[in-house]
Automatic annotation (TrEMBL):
Protein name as catalogued: Transmembrane protein 249-like
InterPro entries listed in its UniProt record: TMEM249
Membrane-spanning ranges: 52-73, 79-97
Keywords, alphabetical: Membrane, Transmembrane, Transmembrane helix
Gene name of the encoded protein: LOC110976363
PANTHER family membership: CATION CHANNEL SPERM-ASSOCIATED AUXILIARY SUBUNIT TMEM249, TRANSMEMBRANE PROTEIN 249
């Protein structure tokens, strides 16, 4: 199977009329290991863009037009310097986040890799990368949940948009983690719903449990 490349919005749910859990379910029907592709037996890869790329790009455009507009309508003064500095910061941020991020899961060796562009950022044991249900309370008191892919030296990637239907997202997240043979963590740190398939191979059983609690 060919490698899967996910664009800036590739893992986002841009359908505002369909519940996020339903969008995610349909994606998993088309590709049971979404957003990954199996490039060889027990070897999964996904390439994606940083979610901060579009933020820095919007800021870059805003500061560019702001700088030009201020230069045209005002005499050159110290405030123009601030606009130019802001533009340079946004330009640098856009450059930093423009590189494609690539996550490789090699389950035959129980290892994962995180690449930025052509640079290997980190290679480690697979217990340090996981699927998790995360949540955040809104001003109305409701808690909105989403499924994320995260890990040590891995940039968190939201696999769904936010939904109040916790149990449906949880079921889909657990299925995805099982298909990828990854650890799954529940919203709360201490939960019977954690599914720990891999523990730290370098630590004692007690230290391994403690390290997992820090990750979760």
């Amino acid at each position: 199977m060919s490698k899967k490349h996910v664009g800036v919005f590739g893992t986002w749910d841009l359908n505002f009329w369909t519940p996020p859990e339903e969008v995610f379910r349909r994606k998993l029907e088309k590709n049971p290991i979404h957003p990954f592709s199996e490039t060889s037996p027990d070897h999964f890869e996904v390439s994606l863009r940083s979610p901060w790329l579009w933020v820095s790009s919007v800021c870059l455009l805003a500061t560019f037009f702001g700088t030009v507009g201020y230069y045209v309508t005002n005499p050159v003064d110290q405030f123009l310097t601030y606009f130019v500095m802001a533009f340079m910061v946004c330009l640098y941020a856009t450059f930093v986040y423009s590189d494609v991020r690539r996550i490789v899961l090699d389950m035959t060796r129980n290892e994962y890799e995180f690449h930025t562009g052509n640079r290997l950022v980190y290679r480690g044991h697979v217990h340090n990368v996981y699927i998790r249900l995360v949540g955040q309370k809104s001003g109305t008191g409701d808690t909105y949940y989403k499924i994320v892919l995260n890990g040590f030296h891995v940039e968190e990637q939201a696999l769904t948009s936010s939904s109040i239907r916790r149990h449906k997202l949880e079921k889909l997240g657990r299925k995805l983690a099982a298909r990828l043979n990854l650890n799954y963590f529940d919203f709360v740190d201490e939960s019977v719903k954690h599914v720990v398939r891999h523990r730290c191979p370098y630590a004692s059983p007690e230290e391994s449990v403690e390290s997992l609690s820090h990750i979760a």
